[in-house]
Amino acid sequence: MHYNGKPNPPRQVLDVVVIGEALTDVVTTPGGTIEHPGGSPANVAYGLARLGVSTGLLTAIGTDRRGAALEEHLAGAGVTLLPGSRSLEGTSTATATIAQDGSASYAFDIIWDVQPLDLVHTPPKVLHTGSIASFLAPGAATVRTVLQQLRHQCIITYDPNIRPSLLGTHAEALRTFEELVHLTSVVKLSDEDAEWLYPDKTLGETATHILTLGADLAVITKGSSGSLLATPGTVLSIPAVTSTVVDTIGAGDSYMSALILGILTRGTDGYAPSVLEQLGGTAAAAAAITVGRAGARPPTGHELRLMLQR
pLDDT tens, position by position, for the chain (310 residues)? Predict the structure, then answer.
């Protein structure tokens, strides 16, 4: 599972393949403009590689300067950029403009048109997708096709990471979400995602509903209030790990990366209560490390092990 520092050839069986957007976050303030690598799926892939998991990313980036910066960022952690990912002329952006009073406005310039990749003959142990990639045409159709092809060949994890301004109507987004849940094994939402999708349900009711749609494990994160992990036979509340918060950027993606790591290494006990406690505790520790420092900087495997030892 551990990355050996050498690039993986395209046909190598990877522990995890992530399918989803990689983009440039552009933050404009009165003091100037700063650009950062972004995109929830790309952040999850980056976090997995930092934890020592051999990870490939199928995405759509440009052949421009921003695309090159994203590629360098991902390669620095050991992420394999899968064939077909350099498919656009210009890299997508998400721009946040911060006013003098601290208020923010957002603008998105996103193209999601991913090239299909044959993973049937070399399926990973885990396939992860989510965020804009699971909703935005035309690439969302490719994501759905890959999930259909691999649903019986590997564990599929899904984080919708709801962005209401990009999703069309609530009814359309809810239908897309539930159709994808049917193809997945593990679904992780934030409490904000859950409340937007199911405003009339409690978080517990939402988790139960996701299980009835076919998922084996439903996870709902609640920030400083911890997280809820539910299977058809067990519901557990896992406390957050205490941390001095610098900012919350990337915390949910770090949680997702560590959750996938836990699924890969959980042994033969399935989702027994003791396994759920370990999964939730490990993911909470990863999120705590990330919020304790500026920006989307997920922990390394060494940092996570030290936190868990404490």
Answer: 433 444 444 456 799 999 999 999 888 888 888 898 999 999 999 999 999 999 999 999 999 999 999 999 999 999 999 999 999 999 999 888 877 776 667 788 999 999 888 898 899 999 999 999 999 999 999 999 999 999 999 999 999 999 888 888 999 999 999 999 999 999 999 999 999 999 999 999 999 999 999 999 999 999 989 999 999 999 999 999 988 888 788 899 999 999 999 999 998 789 999 999 999 999 999 999 998 887 778 999 999 999 998 8
Instruction: Assess if residue 154 is contained within a domain.
Output: yes
Domain membership of residue 38 as a residue range: 16-302
Q: Count structural domains, the chain.
A: 1
Q: How many CA atoms lie within 13 A of 24 on its CB side?
A: 22
Residue 102, domain member (yes or no): yes
Q: Is 102 left (phi over 0), alpha (psi -120 to 50) or beta?
A: left
pTM of full prediction above 0.90: yes
